[in-house]
Amino acid sequence: MGKEGPGTNLVQGNPLFVNYDRLEYTGDFALMKGSPAIDKGKDLGYNSDFMNKPVPMGGAPDIGAIEYDPVSSVTERNKSETLIYSSNGTIIINNYDQHKQAVIYNMLGMMIRRINLVGGKNYINMTEKQVCIVGLENGVRAIIR
User: What's the structural domain count of the chain?
Assistant: First the structure.
């Protein structure tokens, strides 16, 4: 007979982790629908999770830092979609669609830079932090600040 205690025998099977798209890092252990870790945590007195969402959202807290939210549940991102976002003055383009170029415009519509893209992640350091528009050749646009 095994000893019961914190961290033992809490969840059996695959916990169904997924990357939470709104975070900048991978492997953050958000829970997918149907995860056996949903409502299996213990009440430790926390009122909110890592994303500042209320805890618990179901009958009991979930195991992990990100509480499962059935209303805005995490969906797996299609790996063929190109993502454009910014972090600390750097524009990041996850070029899954194999775009050739990105063009960056200021808010007046003047071109600031034209960048040749590679497949995968592209990091574009911006010397000035400003709101800009990033355009790809297929018409995709993103406003970045």
Answer: 2
- Round the CA-based radius of gyration of the chain to a whole number and report it: 20
Check: CB of residue 44 under 8 Å from CB of residue 61: yes
Q: What's the predicted TM-score (pTM) here?
A: 0.44
| Sequence-separated (6 or more) residues with CB below 8 Å from residue 70 | 33, 57, 58
Q: How many CA atoms lie within 13 A of 143 on its CB side?
A: 4
Strand order in the sheet with 83-87: 83-87, 90-95, 120-125
Give the largest Cα separation in the chain, rounded: 71
Query: Do residues 66 and 90 both lie within one domain?
Result: no
Judge whether 68 lies within some domain.
yes
* pLDDT averaged per 10 residues in sequence order, the chain, 145 residues: 53 72 59 87 86 84 83 54 80 84 87 89 82 80 72
Q: Which two tokens stand for residue 122?
A: 């592209």
Helix (H, G, I), strand (E, B) or coil at 27: coil
CATH assignment at residue 115: 2.60.40
